[in-house]
């Protein structure tokens, strides 16, 4: 990794932290207010790509684990990794990685539609696929209950996927960070 | 600063960070191997005794870390009463409480620098893949530096947009903000090189530097 | 020869090093299909060198060529005989670099930690790092801010911290890329005085022409070429006249 990549990784870890400072936004018609932090997960993947995006979220979680109260609502410390909803946290680096991977795959013809595909698969599907079973395992509740409970967050996540995609497409035009290896060299 | 550390000189504070994290991990696995309320409840009592007794942590320091999931634990308990039975519900809730308290104790008694050192130590096997553990500390330090910087630049862009008549928070401001901070990060990358961040492998430090990065 | 050589520098200099000073031989640089510098050949041996020119003239790239941050796409840059292309690390140990925006240069959250960063990377022993940190805190009036978060410093203090962070590495020369562009008048004067008092040889890229009053040599860069080169008494008025 070049020094610049280290700076990008730290930058997006910081961006996810700053998004946690934004108070939850109530949206008319949605059952629960939207928190901004998973928007950072989506942006990390779709701006930095798989490797750097995933690392940014790992660094963010490492900071949270060390006791920095950076999760929305000022939560932090090791206890958040033991809580019933910890699976959603664990999913973030993987989600950013998957979004990044898909973004790199679509990079040449990247547009709003492809960005949405990447963000919905990585930012919604992956996160719930890890978070829901985790909750049911840790809380000893059946999968269906855990699944139903998480449904209320889906509309907010769709809104975030749209916002992240719009931003990602605009940033790609203004300041593209993802560089594809020329001539099918080994992907980094 | 950005930390939940509660300063102190107790045995728990002075115990090596690696040992504390190891015990916590063992507890996390162990508690899921048992269904006996006495064992799970005992673990909670021990965790509380270590935190409030041995480490002399204020009650509030622990409560603050457990409070965010309070409601969730209550919902979980009610769910079990309705669907399974009292015993399963009690074990499930006590288990999570024990883990939460134990984790809160480790967080409150261990300095960030000590935790960074453990993270670097844990990452040392990754050397095989070309990962330099010391860089993890550097990236963590840079993140702490960037957090206020990003917040400040966001506020400045918001002001600029307000001056041009955009009176509320709009997602459109995310694009100029991101481009600006990405540019800055690219320069930070240059500055890292200029200040010798890639210098380390060229020559080994003559002595282990004491300054934790 | 006006470079003052330090004993430890001599110890590190390979026997093949012939030139002293910074030498550019037929240097050109382009980003993709955009040429930013072409046919630059000169040798810098003076203690105080200024570089002026319009935005986008290639000044910034010129500055980055001098310590190997940018490697020329054609030609060669030699620092005391060391090629920036093959010996970039050794070159960067000799040539410090101060950026326009101190926010982009300060990488650690607190003042003392940031000062320790450069020497730490160089493998300087801990006690010596501590000594240098104290010295820099003292010299630039930052002693009261030792453990303060860097983002709480004023703009002027941040630039002083950035300069101190470079000086803590004990370079033999320092390149400044528009060090006063983001500062107010009082801080511009303060930084100008700091540069003036440096014992190191310096190259300053700037838009502030009064910074260059006591300089030995000033280059004017225009459209990627060195359009004028000489004493500030000649080149600065020439540059100003071209603006009118």
The CATH architecture name of chain A reads Orthogonal Bundle
Averaging pLDDT over every residue of chain A, what do you get? 88
Separation of the first and last Cα atoms of chain C = 37 Å
Rg of chain A over CA atoms, rounded to whole Å, is 16 Å
**What is the 3D form of chain C?**
globular
Overall mean pLDDT of chain C stands at 88
Name the CATH architecture of chain C: 3-Layer(aba) Sandwich
What do these coordinates show?
The complex is a heterotrimer of chains A (188), B (213) and C (244). Chain A is an all-alpha fold. Chain A has one domain: Arp2/3 complex 21 kDa subunit ARPC3 (Orthogonal Bundle). Chain A has seven helices and no strands. Chain A is globular and about 50 Å long. Chain B is an all-alpha fold and 213 residues long. Chain B folds into two domains: 11-110, no CATH class; 127-202, no CATH class. In chain B, 69% of the residues lie in helices and 0% in strands. Chain B contains nine helices and no strands. Residues 201-213 of chain B have low confidence and may be disordered. By secondary structure, chain C is of the alpha/beta class. Chain C has one domain (7-243): P-loop containing nucleotide triphosphate hydrolases (Rossmann fold), CATH 3.40.50.300. Chain C has eight helices and ten strands. Chain C has helices at 7-12, 59-65, 88-94, 111-121, 126-139, 155-167, 185-197, 232-243; strands at 22-31, 34-44, 48-52, 74-79, 82-83, 95-98, 173-177, 201-205, 217-222, 225-230. In chain C, the strands form two sheets. Chain C has a six-stranded mixed β-sheet with strand order 6-7-8-3-9-10, sandwiched between helices. In chain C, strands 2-1-4-5 form a four-stranded antiparallel β-sheet, with helices on one face. In chain C, helix 4 (111-121) runs parallel beside helix 6 (155-167) and helix 6 runs parallel beside helix 7. The radius of gyration of chain C is 18 Å and the shape is globular. The chains are: A mainly alpha (188), B mainly alpha (213), C alpha/beta (244). Chains in contact: A-B, B-C. The B-C interface holds B 1, 138, 141-142, 144-145, 148-149, 152, 184, 187-188, 190-200, 202-211, 213 and C 64, 67, 69, 89, 92-93, 96-97, 99, 101, 103-109, 113, 116-118, 120-126, 129-130, 149-151, 165-166, 169. Chain A: It is a multi-pass membrane protein. Chain A: Keywords: Cell membrane, Membrane, Transmembrane, Transmembrane helix, Transport. Chain A: One of its GO terms (molecular function) is biotin transmembrane transporter activity. Chain A: InterPro entries: BioY. Chain A: Belongs to the BioY family. Chain C: InterPro entries: AAA+_ATPase (IPR003593), ABC_transporter-like_ATP-bd (IPR003439), ABC_transporter-like_CS (IPR017871), ABC_transpr_CbiO/EcfA_su (IPR015856), ECF_ABC_transporter_ATP-bd (IPR050095), P-loop_NTPase (IPR027417).
